[in-house]
């Protein structure tokens, strides 16, 4: 059984495919649709679950419970989870307008960093709404679950990356030093994709949990939850 974990990166999207707990491919693509199509082409229809580190589903009003619950579990790294506002905020094509709309609909502002993911957020949600089955997975929640406690070092630090690699390796997930063209992605993005793949495999095997449980419903009635 295979699982695919995907993380947004500077070049587009990076994916790590697992066969059980073994890394079989690391891939890089400019679009999420391209990366997903390549995975299906390589392994036919054998990808049992696909996880992506991007918000999936917008609240009808206010903020999503999933984000608050995930942040509460991450201790010193809680800021790695950003609050996801309603769809109308993401429809705004410039940050100032989006921030104003966010304050109108939620009572709080939208960070520049969050709005910077607008293209990726809309891309992933468009694919899900078109019928592609995707599971939202947050890599820091994955690593906290592997570690039994929130990590205390950021993913870009030397100590943080060493710990994340060790946590993955303890579960048999060893990312090769040579990832081919995908090696152009930042190390933390590849490690995040590997962690997402670990949780996607848990989803496929029926051993994952989700926040909240049961999931909320978004403005179109689809489930909203962060899986791990």
Can you tell me about this structure?
The two termini are 18 Å apart. The mean pLDDT is 94. Helix 7 packs across helix 9 and helix 8 packs parallel to helix 9. The protein has a single domain, classed as Nucleotidyltransferase, domain 5. The chain has a 5-stranded mixed beta sheet with strand order 3-2-1-4-5. A two-stranded antiparallel sheet has the order 6-7. The radius of gyration is 17 Å and the shape is globular. The protein is α/β, with parallel strands linked by helices. The protein contains 9 helices and 7 strands, in the order E-E-E-H-E-H-H-H-H-H-E-H-H-H-E-E. The chain is 41% helix and 20% strand. Strand 1 (2-9) and strand 2 form a beta hairpin.
Which key terms come to mind for this protein?
228 residues, five-stranded mixed sheet, 20% strand
Task: Give a quick precis of the structure.
With 228 residues, the chain is an alpha/beta fold. The protein has helices spanning 32-43, 65-73, 87-90, 95-106, 112-115, 118-129, 139-147, 158-169, 187-205; strands at 2-9, 12-19, 22-29, 47-53, 135-136, 210-217, 223-227.
Write the layout of secondary structure elements.
Layout: E1 2-9, E2 12-19, E3 22-29, H1 32-43, E4 47-53, H2 65-73, H3 87-90, H4 95-106, H5 112-115, H6 118-129, E5 135-136, H7 139-147, H8 158-169, H9 187-205, E6 210-217, E7 223-227
Parallel strand pairs: 1-4, 4-5
Antiparallel strand pairs: 1-2, 2-3, 6-7
Helix pairs in contact: 7-9, 8-9
């Amino acid at each position: 059984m295979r699982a695919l974990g995907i993380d947004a990166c500077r070049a587009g999207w990076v994916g790590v495919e697992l066969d059980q707990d073994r890394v079989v491919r690391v891939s890089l693509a400019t679009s999420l649709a391209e990366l997903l199509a390549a995975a299906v082409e390589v392994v036919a229809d054998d990808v049992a679950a696909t996880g992506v580190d991007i918000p999936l589903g917008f609240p009808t009003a206010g903020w999503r419970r999933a984000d608050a619950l995930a942040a509460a579990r991450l201790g010193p790294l809680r800021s790695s989870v950003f609050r996801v506002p309603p769809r109308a905020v993401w429809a705004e094509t410039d940050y100032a307008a989006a921030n104003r709309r966010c304050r109108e609909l939620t009572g709080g502002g939208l960070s520049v960093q969050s709005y910077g993911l607008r293209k990726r957020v809309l891309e992933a949600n468009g694919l899900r709404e078109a019928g592609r089955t995707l599971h939202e997975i947050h890599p820091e929640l994955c690593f906290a679950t592997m570690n039994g406690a929130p990590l205390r070092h950021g993913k870009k630090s030397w100590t943080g990356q060493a710990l994340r690699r060790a946590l993955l390796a303890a579960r048999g997930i060893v990312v090769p030093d040579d990832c081919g063209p995908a090696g152009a992605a930042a190390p933390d993005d590849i490690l995040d994709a590997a962690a997402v793949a670990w949780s996607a495999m848990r989803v496929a095997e029926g051993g994952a949990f989700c926040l909240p449980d049961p999931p909320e419903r978004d403005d179109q009635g689809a489930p909203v939850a962060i899986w791990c």
